[in-house]
Design brief:
- This protein is of the alpha/beta class and 136 residues long.
- A three-stranded parallel sheet has the order 1-2-3, with helices on both faces.
């Protein structure tokens, strides 16, 4: 069997600014949401809000099926690069499609973007347990 571990990923590329506002988090990069942002560069230098079809095609929520492998999503509540609500939203969509027993969400309080805050013994143990559960 397969399993997926996704960490602090961007999934809703056109929602960064609105989600940061909602969370009352100041983005690390002032160009967030613009053509010259990292998310804009990923789409050929276009502001994500201007290329809805490409943004929709890049969102994994549009590809979820009941036959997906189990999913563990982790994100940090202090992430200033990708709003953690993106992991929350993907987990909610995945639970609807795949079932609540197939999806886990771990929001790490105070964690930032990148591996440094996610390489703790507890998080590594959680990931190993997740894999052992599904890869037996």
């Amino acid at each position: 069997m397969s399993a997926v571990i996704a960490s602090y990923g961007p999934y809703q590329f056109d929602q960064f600014s609105a989600q940061f506002d909602l969370l009352k988090i100041t983005p690390k990069f002032r160009e967030t949401g613009q053509a010259d942002s990292f998310e804009g560069v990923m789409f050929g230098g276009h502001a994500p809000a201007q290329i809805k079809d490409q943004i929709t095609a890049a969102d994994p929520a549009h590809y979820l099926t009941a036959k997906m492998p189990p999913l563990l999503l982790t994100a940090g509540t202090a992430d200033q690069v990708v709003p953690y609500v993106q992991s929350f939203n993907l987990a909610a969509s995945a639970m609807t499609v795949m079932g609540t027993d197939q999806v886990q969400l771990h929001l790490v309080d105070g964690a930032h973007h990148g591996p440094a805050d996610f390489m703790t013994a507890d998080i590594v143990a959680e990931r190993v347990a997740f894999l052992n559960r599904w890869l037996d």
